[in-house]
Amino acid sequence: MPSRMLGRRPPKRAPALKLSRFLTGAVPAHPPAADHFAQVGDWGLYTNDKYGVCGPTSVANQRKLVSKYLGGAEQSPTLADVYDLYRRSGNPTFNPATGAGDNGVDMQTMLEALLAGGIGGVKPLAFAAVDARDLDEMRAAISIFGSVLLGVDLETAQDAQTDAGLWDYRRTPEWGGHAVVSGRYVDVTPDRGDRTAVVTWAHVVDMTDAFVQHQVEEAWVVIWAEHLGARAFQEGVDQVALAAAYEELTGRPFPAPVTPPAPPTPVGADQALAQAMRSWLSAKGL
To answer: Rounded to whole angstroms, how far apart are CA atoms 223 and 123?
Structure first.
């Protein structure tokens, strides 16, 4: 399948931040649908039709999305930027002229390289693992962060399904590991089920819940500087807990100022008296 290359290695499962540790709720309230793909019309292929650069390609497309929606102007990493991240992610001898050193990436190693050296001159602040088996947590992450990087296990059925625009779970021979970026989900009619969309090979493809539950192996959020000023991030993320978890894992302070949760609105004396009266009347059945 030379026109669709894969390139995700099995996850190394090293210690990492867990998104669930710094959400403002067990799973924050999130809308039944979210679409962060609509304003980006030029998804990059970045030669993922020839080489196993799906990991850095998903990061580059995520960067386009985040900068467009939260930064006000789309930033498009170059092909050279993608190749640079690919080499720093475990392929130091990669040569696109010959195809030598094209060995794919494990996503956590790639994200560590992204954190250390960025892409296109821009570094993220942190990354964290999402529970790939928890559809609510994944969709909350898409709502809060605008996108999630996914590591999927594709089977040969997905080759034809890609042309049809929908990945669905169907037992067929294994194809291999692939990295994509997700930024859209929608609740559809009960007979059709829900849909979560990804960008892969420069096209948008939907996934059924059955596909997600059986073939999505890992999921990651990347926290960029633009997120800190976003309302969804401020409401969905406990930034103090994020900073504490970051320092516990790395031994370093979180690399940006954090905003404590807003304190509850104080109740004035007259409001408190009225509230107490209502409670007393309710207890008396009045």
So the answer is: 10
Collapsing DSSP to helix, strand or coil, 91 comes out as coil
Contacts of 133 (CB under 8 A, 6+ apart): 213
47: how many CB neighbours lie within 10 A of its CB? 16
Q: Which residues in 172-186 are b (16+ Cβ under 10 Å) and which e?
A: eeebbbbbbbbbbbe
Note the pTM of the prediction, 2 decimals: 0.89
For 91-144, the pLDDT digits (tens) are 999 999 999 999 999 999 999 999 999 999 999 999 999 999 899 999 999 999
Sequence-separated (6 or more) residues with CB below 8 Å from residue 240: 258, 260, 261
Nearest alpha carbon to residue 165 among 149, 184, 150: 184
Q: How far apart (Å, rounded) are the C-alpha atoms in residues 223 and 206?
A: 24
Cβ pair 168, 211 in contact under 8 A: yes
d(CA 22, CA 145) in angstroms, rounded, equals: 13
State the CB neighbour count (10 A cutoff) for residue 240. 14
